[in-house]
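Hello, quick one for you while I still have it in my head. No rush at all, and the record is pasted right below.
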Amino acid sequence: MWTFSHTETTTAAPAALWSHYADPESWPTWDRETEAVTLDGPFTAGATGTLKPAGGPLTRYVLTEVTPGESFTDVTRLPLARLTFGHRIEPHDGGSRFTHTVTFTGPLSGLFRRVIGKGIAAGMPEAMGRLAALAAAKMERT
């Protein structure tokens, strides 16, 4: 098993962050490592969709946990491994603190950690910074 987490803070309220999470098709606007995302239905536990990583193959994911305004988890099954991506928002000092956690499990988790995990970990701070800026700008417009 391999896990990596990153936490950011923003002046944006949790609802402003959540609005970006709950719109998967917009994820590429803040995550440059993602080319395209779809969701087959509402943003609720059990919903499935596709995600096309930059330069990678189209993958399917399932939302395994959704707590509106607070957290969600998506899981992608890989050959002999599983990629779990957790997202959590907490109110913090008039804004928000949010954490993304990526975990690889399964017999080939070490291989996937080396092949794609390092890239995910390297890009996560930038993506989260972009998300924080978008959410803060959205608050300023309202």
The helical segments are 14-21, 109-141. The first strand starts at residue 2 and ends at 10. The CA atoms of residues 33 and 55 lie 8 Å apart. The chain has one domain: 2-141.
